[in-house]
Amino acid sequence: MGQTRLYLTAARDDAEAIFKLLDARFDDEGLPISIFEADEERGLFEVSLYAEDDIEAVAARMRETLSALGNPPDLTIEPVPDIDWVSHSLAGLKPVRVGRFLVHGGHDRQLRRPGDIAIEIEAGLAFGTGHHGTTAGCLKAIARVLQSEAPRQALDLGAGSAVLAIAIARAARIPVLATDIDPIAVRVAWQNVRLNGVERLVDTQTAPGFHHRIFAERRPFELIVANILARPLMGLAPDMARHLAPGGSLILSGILERQRRAVVAAYNGQGFRHIRTDAREGWVTIHMKR
Ligand SMILES: C[S@@+](CC[C@H](N)C(=O)[O-])C[C@H]1O[C@@H](n2cnc3c(N)ncnc32)[C@H](O)[C@@H]1O
């Protein structure tokens, strides 16, 4: 089942009060809550809670919690759109070069050149062949971060084919945790990890967002990459802050250009600072640090 966003729109002070109440009420349930500026001109903020099950019951608990405010704004409930990752992944048949990374299928091994960090990906039922602007943007950002930073441990959240996790493991020789909400993607990810001989460095795990005990066991991460979508990424901002080591780098993608400001604002609110944004094919990849 997909995610649903339950949100309220209000001026900054009211939105902050709403965020505080909901954060305190839903903290134990582990439901992600975010606050970000939705309309800069009118000074309106959105406070969103993301849930997967029992949406009506969650909505009722939200309304009950907010009744403490007297006259709270209306709650809007909308499904978070799913992207057809499978059809995206099947588009990826040709090899892709991004800096030193060469992402290719089994039939293109002969294209490897000395000095390449080659990543062989079987385009199975998981997204991530390097062709999409978001994956390529992440590969480029990873290469740039690894030029000046030496992370000890990394997380690839929403790993799909695990192309990014494999890229990090091969380039930095560090342990990487690769997670995905979709168990089929995780199976494909593990096949790709073995195909690339990095099974000693990359662990795979099925997990929605940060909902798995493995994150508490493995954190902090000095590098996190997450190529998901703007809305869930905004919801994940508080958890990202909890799991990224101070001074660590966060690379976010799956974000449309027009969503960039809202995503940066959600992460600024969690103590992240913007380092750089790269745009490709209408998508942006954002590098932030804590
Ligand atoms: C755009 S693909 C990215 C795949 C790969 N990391 C890449 O960059 O090519 C997004 C992946 O995120 C997964 N995903 C979406 N929402 C998620 C969530 N809340 N938690 C974990 N994974 C999620 C999807 O199943 C999908 O495999």
Task: Write a structural description.
The chain is an alpha/beta fold and 290 residues long. It has 2 domains: 76 residues, Alpha-Beta Plaits (2-Layer Sandwich), CATH 3.30.70; 157 residues, Vaccinia Virus protein VP39 (Rossmann fold, 3-Layer(aba) Sandwich). The strands form 3 sheets. Strands 10-9-8-11-12-14-13 form a 7-stranded mixed beta sheet, with helices on both faces. Helix 4 runs parallel beside helix 5. The two termini are 33 Å apart. The relative contact order is 0.13. Bound molecules: S-adenosylmethionine. S-adenosylmethionine binds next to helix 4, helix 5 and strand 9.
List the helices and strands and how they pair.
Blueprint: E1 4-11, H1 12-26, E2 33-39, E3 44-51, H2 55-66, E4 76-79, H3 85-90, E5 96-98, E6 101-104, E7 117-120, H4 133-148, E8 154-157, H5 163-172, E9 176-180, H6 183-195, E10 202-206, H7 213-218, E11 221-227, H8 230-235, H9 237-243, E12 244-256, H10 260-268, E13 273-280, E14 283-289
Bound molecules: S-adenosylmethionine.
Count of individual domains: 2
Reported CATH architecture of the largest domain: 3-Layer(aba) Sandwich
Largest sheet entry? 7 strands, mixed
**Shape assignment:** elongated
- Label the structural class: alpha/beta
Helix content: 25-40%
The counted number of beta strands is 14
The helix tally amounts to 10
> Beta-strand level of the residues, as a percent range?
25-35%
Order of helices and strands: EHEEHEHEEEHEHEHEHEHHEHEE
Could you name the CATH homologous superfamily of the largest domain? Vaccinia Virus protein VP39
Alpha-carbon distance between the two ends: 33 Å
Rg result: 19 Å
The molecules bound to the chains, other than polymers, are: S-adenosylmethionine
Per the CATH scheme, the topology name of the largest domain is: Rossmann fold
Taking pLDDT < 50 over at least 5 consecutive residues as the criterion, the unreliable ranges are none
Characterize the quaternary organization of these chains.
single chain
Strand order of the largest sheet: 10-9-8-11-12-14-13
User: What's the CATH first level of the largest domain?
Assistant: Alpha Beta
